[in-house]
Specification:
With 292 residues, the protein is of the alpha+beta class. Helices cover 20% and strands 37% of the residues. The chain has 2 domains: 5-126 and 268-287, Rossmann fold (3-Layer(aba) Sandwich); 129-264, Tumour Suppressor Smad4, CATH 2.60.200. The strands form 4 sheets. Strands 3-2-1-4-5-6 form a 6-stranded parallel sheet, with helices on both faces. Helix 3 (71-82) links the parallel strand 4 and strand 5 (90-94).
């Protein structure tokens, strides 16, 4: 299906992202696809020729969302889609360093846009994680992540202890710098740096990985995506400032007796693919995986 309106947002602190967004807007306009620019990106790029919209409402105004920057920008776009009633696909143009999720390079941008408006793309679906924090004072905070939800300490050189329960069954108490719950998509992000496994994004699972655990017996655990994982920091034992972080983008401080529950999100994210690259190609190109 060919989009008639495309939402564009960029990493506003990256001049090349703003210039490429402007170039893409011109190209789309010339090829009968209306560019709708995220308001902050439009202001930073000095664009006032086309419609604009706030990040949170942009998915409701368009048929596809295009993110210019690195993986962080795509994660930001994914968060906007996850909170929107309109389930639009997301295309990432990589202008950062690694760009594991943002498949399209700067040199490939125009070809990718041409494939997009011609309806010659495919979409991959990716599981997302839903995190809910039950605060001790009765409040509740919820957010969705594509890569990971992380409970970690902010105080340097201080270990924390986290009680882990899965589907109501006690599992363990992790003594570590924190715990990562990563989707298969996010298994190549923080999870990989912390020693967790690479999981193919088609696998319906997520990974629980301790961060620098105190004991070698606490190893990463691959879980079915149907699992409900509850994390309860035992702050009274190791007083520290503790945070829940969603995709490295959104932070929520935890207090004593706050509880974090992580499950699969009700909606899958759709990522636009314009090339024939496989997941294994990306592992070799981006992570140098398998190179002896």
């Amino acid at each position: 299906m060919s989009p008639t309106r495309a939402g564009l947002l960029a990493r506003v602190t990256l001049p090349s992202a703003l210039s490429d967004l402007a170039e893409a807007a011109e190209w789309l306009h010339a090829h009968s696809c209306v560019p709708v620019i995220e308001a902050e990106s439009a202001a930073a790029a000095g664009l006032d020729r086309w419609p604009t919209g706030a990040r949170d409402v942009l998915p409701q105004m368009v048929d596809v969302l295009i993110a210019f920057g690195g993986d962080g920008t795509l994660l930001d776009a994914a968060g906007a889609v996850a909170q929107s009633p309109n389930d639009v696909p997301v295309l990432g143009v990589n202008l950062g360093r690694l760009g594991f999720l943002t498949e399209v390079s700067r040199a490939e941008m125009r070809d990718a846009l041409a494939a997009l408006v011609a309806g010659q793309t495919r979409t991959d679906t990716r599981l997302m994680l839903s995190g809910r924090i039950a605060h001790a004072d009765g409040r509740s905070t919820a957010h969705v992540a594509l890569n990971d939800i992380v409970v970690t300490r902010t105080a340097p050189s201080r270990m924390i202890e986290i009680e882990v329960t899965i589907d109501g069954q006690p599992v363990c108490q992790v003594k570590a710098d924190g715990v990562i719950l990563a989707s298969a998509t996010g298994s190549t992000a923080y999870n990989l740096s912390a020693g967790g496994p690479i999981v193919h994004p088609a696998v319906d699972a997520f990974v629980l990985t301790p961060i620098a655990p105190h004991t070698l017996t606490q190893r990463p655990l691959v879980l079915p995506a149907t699992a409900a994982v509850t994390l309860r920091p035992l702050a009274e034992r190791y007083p520290a400032e503790i945070l829940v972080t969603f995709d490295g983008q959104y932070n929520v401080p935890l207090n004593d007796d706050d509880v974090v529950t992580v499950e699969r999100a009700p909606r899958l994210l759709r990522l636009v693919r314009t090339s024939s690259r496989t997941h294994y190609d990306m592992l070799r190109e981006k992570l140098k995986w398998g190179n002896g």
